[in-house]
Amino acid sequence: MAAIMDHRDGPLLIHSMPAQRLPVGCESILGPPPRRLRGHVLGYSGFGSPAAARVGHRLLPITATTLIVDFGTGSGLVTGMRGQAHLETRTPWGYGVSVALTPAGVRGLLGVPARELAGETLDLAAVLGARAGEWSERLAAAPGWPARWALLDELLTAALDPAPDDLLMTAWRRLHADRRLRIGAVAAGLGVSRRRLELVVREQLGLSPGRIARIARLQRAAALLASGSRPAEAAAAAGFADQAHLTREMRALGGLTPGELCAIVQDHWTVRT
Hints:
By secondary structure, this protein is an alpha+beta fold. Helix content is 42%, strand content 23%.
């Protein structure tokens, strides 16, 4: 199970969850990035499955690109932002860390626009090169999670080429903040036409503004469900018309119902900060 605490306003982002219910719980340990990395890094997460068993995962729709390092194998993955859930059983993982990057973080760390990774699951070494093995060894050897967060701060600060804020990042943030999916209003607030917003976002991220806003709303609801909210409460707070609307969206984008998500994240998953 991998989850990230988004530093922007504190919500939980659920990157992935076991593809099926497990007899005992998984755990995520959340860490925020330092202020100097904000705008590029959303957050860190340590994760562990029962007895460090490697399990298949359901990758949920998410608007962050995520680096995953599995300590058990010394290998890792990069998963791009995605508009649809995806079952990943070929490359399971069980004990390690994940790092969530904003579009600016993808450009600054990997040197490519986020669209080139959208919907993809790639080997970490194919993206980071020789750094992948070094990061894996050093993170696995660090004495505890606080030490790993400090090491990630160091590694990312050294590797990132900070990108200036631009229309894309401003649009990306505002699309997450607009709970009513008013894409025209977001465009007007940025001083551009809706068509211009569509072109910039699709060209750089590989997803439409509307899909990004839908994913952000779904992630808000998933976080509320994971924290114990009832589906009707989560739907209202996240910006859905009603519980039925949430159920339809979760089925369409996530491939499961709110009840099925709750059965895993509440009964078999613990989050520590």
